[in-house]
């Protein structure tokens, strides 16, 4: 009989058992269950592969269960443009709510619009709504969002939960006079102060909180911050053992311990290693057999998780990444300067490029870390492959 493999490595795929995130789930439950209480929002940060997108998907399900309209969107650097950003927010809301519900609500005159919106167009409804609103971009965005949420309420829903992923990429671009992040935070703060039932879940790499605070210092009071990391040993074992038991898969305790050790409990790696182990070894996983297949499992991990991002790095950037790996996961800029002997401005340019490519993050002033868990180990394997070739 063919063994059913329950493990699902992938971008944002819900695992068969979401282990170790009980505190985060309880936090959102409290927010959803108290729509008239003080506004509360969630900021989720962490490295790649720790389960931020998975958590957002679970949040989306929970919001729907509690009678909220959940709106998910992923952002990129092009959303640093104010107009593009505002359109993206409204388009996501409109797409989740639907034109029929909006049409009924906007058939009457609404405060903040220059005139009755009238018949909604078949084309770009988000642009139409923003054009019908009056005032500054902040005013138009606030009025439009409030109108959409009015339609949501009229349709019998509690309110809206915005689940915005990769939000660390949305920053103010002062040289270009584009202040998308400032506009967004100002609008959300205003709406929540006015009692509009909208809640935020922002997800991104570890520099997300610093970006928000640098933009508006009051954001620390707007968000409950959760930093996702690897699972503890007991949680990591639970993430594997429950699905295995449900599908009749046996695993030797020593083999389970070795998978947890190899993955350090990072959720994506747990799913990937377990998936590969079941595919290769079937329903009876022994340590000896796992160790025989371990090089191939690691090679598959490297190809699926690391290789694409690493391929985008130039030779100079790869040299810097390899030097960072000598220090482990994190190092200071002065250590890189001393080790590489580069001019400071040249080094800064390489760091800026690696930040833009999402390969590193700035953890504090003058200190950088890999954006990918266990990236230093991948770089060492890559170096060994290069030498062998």
Q: Could you name the CATH class of the largest domain?
A: Alpha Beta
Biggest β-sheet strands, sense, barrel: 5 strands, parallel
CATH topology of the largest domain: Rossmann fold
Helix content: 40-55%
Give the class from helix and strand content and strand pairing.
alpha/beta
Separation of the first and last Cα atoms: 41 Å
Tally of DSSP β-strands: 10
Q: How many domains, as an integer? A: 3
**CATH superfamily grouping of the largest domain:** P-loop containing nucleotide triphosphate hydrolases
- Write down the secondary-structure element order: HEHEHHHHEHEHHEHEHHEHHEHHEEH
Question: Strands across the major sheet, in which order?
Answer: 2-3-4-1-5
Beta percentage is 5-15%
By DSSP (H or I, 4+ residues per run), the number of helices equals: 17
Residue-averaged pLDDT? 91
CATH architecture title of the largest domain:
3-Layer(aba) Sandwich
Radius of gyration from the alpha-carbon trace, in angstroms? 24 Å
Uncertain residue ranges: none
Shape, per Cα inertia axes: globular
């Amino acid at each position: 009989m063919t063994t059913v493999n329950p493990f699902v490595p992938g971008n944002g795929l819900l695992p068969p058992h979401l282990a170790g995130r009980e505190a985060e789930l309880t936090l959102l439950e409290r927010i959803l269950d108290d729509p008239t209480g003080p506004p509360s929002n969630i900021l989720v940060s962490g490295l790649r592969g720790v389960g931020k997108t998975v958590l957002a998907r679970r949040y989306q399900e929970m919001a729907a269960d509690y009678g909220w309209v959940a709106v998910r969107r992923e952002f990129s650097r092009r959303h640093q443009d104010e107009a593009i950003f505002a359109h993206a927010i409204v388009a996501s809301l409109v797409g989740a709510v639907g034109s029929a519900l909006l049409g009924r609500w906007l058939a009457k005159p609404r405060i903040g619009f220059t005139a009755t919106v009238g018949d909604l167009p078949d084309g770009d409804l988000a642009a139409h709504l923003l054009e019908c609103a009056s005032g500054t971009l902040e005013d138009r965005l606030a009025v439009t969002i409030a109108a959409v949420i009015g339609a949501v309420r009229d349709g019998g829903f509690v309110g809206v939960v915005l689940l915005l992923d990769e939000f660390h990429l949305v920053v103010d671009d002062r040289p270009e006079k584009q202040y998308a992040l400032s506009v967004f935070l100002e609008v959300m703060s205003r709406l929540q102060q006015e009692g509009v039932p909208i809640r935020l879940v922002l997800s991104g790499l570890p520099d997300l909180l610093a970006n928000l605070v640098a933009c508006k210092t009051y954001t620390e009071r707007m968000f409950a911050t959760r930093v996702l990391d690897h699972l503890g040993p007991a949680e990591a074992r639970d993430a594997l053992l429950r699905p295995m038991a449900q599908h009749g898969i046996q695993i030797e305790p020593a083999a389970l311990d070795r998978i947890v050790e190899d993955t350090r409990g990072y959720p994506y790696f747990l799913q990937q290693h377990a998936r590969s182990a079941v595919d290769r070894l079937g329903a009876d996983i022994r340590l000896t057999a796992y160790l025989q297949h371990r090089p191939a499992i690691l090679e598959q991990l490297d190809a699926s998780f690391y290789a694409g991002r690493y391929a985008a790095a130039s030779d100079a950037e790869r040299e810097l990444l390899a030097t960072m790996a000598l220090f482990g996961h994190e190092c200071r800029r002065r250590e890189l300067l001393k080790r590489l002997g580069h001019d400071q401005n040249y080094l800064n340019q390489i760091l800026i490029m690696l930040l833009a490519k999402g390969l590193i993050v700035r953890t504090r002033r003058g200190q950088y870390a890999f954006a990918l868990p266990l990236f230093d180990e991948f770089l060492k394997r890559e170096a060994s492959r290069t030498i062998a070739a």
